[in-house]
Amino acid sequence: MTNTKTGKKVNVNKDMMQIIILCLMLFVIIVIAGILNPRFLTVQHLISVLHDTAILGISAIGQTIVILTGGIDLSVGATMLVADAVGAMLMGGQNRIVPIFICLGLGLLIGLINGTGIAYLRIPPFIMTLGMMATLTGSIFIFARTSGFASPILRHLSIGKIGDIPILVLIWIFLAIIMTVIMRFTVFGREVYAIGSNPKASYHSGIKNKKVIFFVYLISGLFSAIAGLFLLGYTGVPELTYRGGGLGMDHTLSAIAAVVIGGTIFTGARGGVERTIFGVLVLKILFSILTMMGIGGAGKLLAQGLVVIVIVGIYVKLEKSR
Amino acid sequence: MKIKKIIGEWYIYILMIIIWIIASMITPYFRQISVFMTIVVFSVPLALIALGQNLVILCGKFDLSVGSILGLSTVIASVTMNDNIFLGIFIPLLVGTIVGLINGIAVSKFRIDSFIMTFGMMAVCQGSGLLIRDYPGGIIPMKFINFLLKETANIAWTPIIILIIALLVGEFILKRTNFGRNIYAVGNDEVIAYRSGINVTFIKTAVFAISGFMAALAGLFLSAVMASGDANVGVLYPLDSITAVVMGGTILSGGRGDYKGTIGAVLILTSLSRIFNLIGVNIWYTYIAKGLLLVIIVAIRMFGVNEQREAEL
Amino acid sequence: MDKFLRVDDISKSFPGVRALSKVSTSFNKGEICALVGENGAGKSTLVHILMGAMKPDTGKVFIQGKEVNITGIHKAREYGIGAVFQDPSLINYMSVAENIFLGEQGKFRHNGILSYSKIFREAEKVLKDLNFKIDVRQYAISLSPEERKLVEFAKMIRCNPDIIILDEITATLDYESVDKLFEIVRNKKDEGKTIIFISHRLKEVFSIADTTLVLKEGKMVKKTEAKDVTEEGLVSLMMGRKLSEIFPKRIGAGRKEREVIYSIKGLSIEGKLNNINIDIAKGEIVALAGLRGHGQSELLKAVFGQMPKSSGKLFIHNKEVTINNPVKAKTQKIAFISNKREDELCFSHSIRRNIALSSLEKRQKAGFIVQNKEKQEISDISSKMNIIAPSLSTEVNSLSGGNKQKVVFSKWLLALPDFLLCDEPAEGLDMGAKSEVYHILRKLADEGKSILLVLSDMIEILNLPDRVVVLREGKIAKEFNIIGTEDRETLEKKILKASIGVN
Questions:
Q1: Which helix (H) or strand (E) holds A260?
Q2: What ipTM does the predicted assembly reach?
């Protein structure tokens, strides 16, 4: 059989296309923001707007890795708020180190339980993390006291700046870079992508699926707890207003939106932690634009939805175009 | 064995009866008619939404937008119904169906992941609802409320009838129509269904349209209960309906399950909230109970399903 | 000039591969035509085009002189074309009866409501007419592979198509069932239906076909009356070259000393395998033969640890080894090359990622992948295996079937196995690729590796392995030594007999 020429050579591969789209998106959205408010275009302003983006960004790191394996973590927001509340309770405004470790430990514990149920008991991720979120929602409101403050150190880390750059943003970027390197250059990272792309093939090729999936949820729990602690540090007091729909659902949904806008799709074929950074930025700047236009929470929600639909539509077109 | 089969099919109702028995032993209040009425009334919206969600999950997809459609529906009703009851009923239903259709077309024709599509649509509908009315309010005419919730001899018959009709309709569609059988085929294996001449695109689009319609319908009912429109009221429904469907025996990946189990699960979930309320237990315990119950039931079922698979994953 | 079905100038290409090239031919009413050709010759593609599952790049189809545009399966049905494909086409969690009437259950109503008792009754009628004894109420998942094929056949035939296409339908069937089926086919011929029958088993072809149509590498070679051609004639038309060119020489003929390294003892899997004992020596290629679905693939999976077994042990160099998952198998240097690419490849990933997948731990330092070592090893093995692609970052999805299979091979070879399990290694490959695969396997054997294959193509069975073990209904029916056997014809007959259970 003759191997015919493929017609058109695969010059620009899909990965490249996606990065181009992401950069374009970011560029466009910054331009729009700049038109509305010229001050926006100064690096200073941009960075200050992004100050609390880091919190979303950190929680989205864990969610990205989970989604890369083809799963989902609906308990991200809940874990964040648990760390937030427990941290405040234990710190009580004093410089104690132990509370931080306890909160991180809680995050790991939550991730451990999720991971065990999903990897070893074969409970679908949607169900397991949903159940976890429900359990956490109930638990936190029963056991938490609304009192408590962040410790000064935490406050400093969350609000402080080095020069013009918030420490929090530096921490976020730092964590993101570490995780990106792990995902792209280690065996573990390869295994994560492989499992998301084709779990059967990974298992068949001798990869310990269960172990990897277990770890992934562990990581998500940890990062959610970290994000929660910084949330505490940023606002100073724990966030315990229940907006319905499950504890911290708005955080969870924003994290998912950021991951999706960043181009990570549920099949581990494409995407990664570095893309999510773009997604987070786009989302937050979008929100800023809306705030500048005087659009409130409702409009923001609507916009978030539309953006997700449109962008995913573009990505799907991209996938199909071969 | 026969007994295993019967338990497999009816475990939800067995569980429900056990829960009711335990509840009536713990608290005398549980034996009052009014409590059962509350359970029934609050089960209606969830049961209606769960019907649509059930069809969607049987096809192997998700519909996260149901709660927002419900909220939007109550808001539209609260704004239009006072002027014209008919319009107040018709427009929300139309909107819900159209939203569902958009979801369906995006998922079936454009192959956008259903989680993401309905996630985005959820935000769109929620936002729209809030834009129309950002705090609960509006007017729902008494005629409408009475029609749905009128009590004779201390029993509101309409909600009971609605539940029964929902059960019959749901089971009928799934077991006794070509459409329902085709849903099972699509959920089991889309490719095989397509090769057998089934219009897979139509089926997938239709289930989302139905889901949207049911969500709007549930919204109309709820607006009568609340006597107002509230865009935020539906926030819990997407996850609760998926919980009910999965607890009731439908497999998350589609192709297996039915609606009677779902209704049983709905009744259990609503009963639990009521019971905890009566016992004086903190409402937050219901969340924990729901979460644990869901995970435990699914875990147990997984062990039953495992027998047929190879040692994979 | 009463050609009932005519195809004119049909061509179809996929990226990198010409599946069909200007095929023009015709079929009469009441004609049974056997469509033969090697894997990848284009038979399935032609079938898919006739059934509307694919659109041809060029060419037209005519039925009774009128051009038809088959846009989809339902259109094909309307035009009276029915097919039984190779891939499974039953819904597992539905009853046999519903499967037979899939999509049209609504026809059976009682007082306006869908009636299951009617569906069951009608299904029973259909099966009775065909003389198939299968319980219509059971879920399709509990059918044996043979029963499945029969039900798929029933599902197609109840629509009473005028053009019947059967794609490798006898691969899983018993002697009796094949007889029953052929009788039905002959009846349909007498009714004036047109039947296109695809099979690898040339003996069958001659027992049923009126005409034969040979495809080779996408082109039509010849269409002749069955009585005007012999089996050897067909083979040479199909392959286009001598067997000795396609298959590597077996040096093993001279080997006297067999050093057994791998011993499978007492392997059983409930419902699939019963007390299997097989030895594989160093440098030996052993083939598992027999009807498809009689436990061959399950045997490989069990040895690889991918399928739980009810009993059985594996001995390597006389030491017992427990393997219950692929990770352990890899540690023991066992590799399993499956024919199901969905189980082997991450389609949206690059060639490089896929090839590296089974040997990641060999090129890592503190968890990090040693990039240049990986690039080197992968580019080495790709050129050794002759993988044709724009670059190593190309998405595996866009490769031809043959190249995909080579990626799978490369992946496992990098894991440096001593024991290779292969399920139909050359399936779906074109002639050139097949020959390459055969040569690679023989080379590995000559290097001292042990190879256990599942083969169903008689030509492969007779020319590639050193020993053949025929499985029937999960048990070992017979073992044959290929080397040292002179008479091919007799050997082939014996193997066939053992496969279908005739003594």
A1: helix A249-261
A2: 0.85
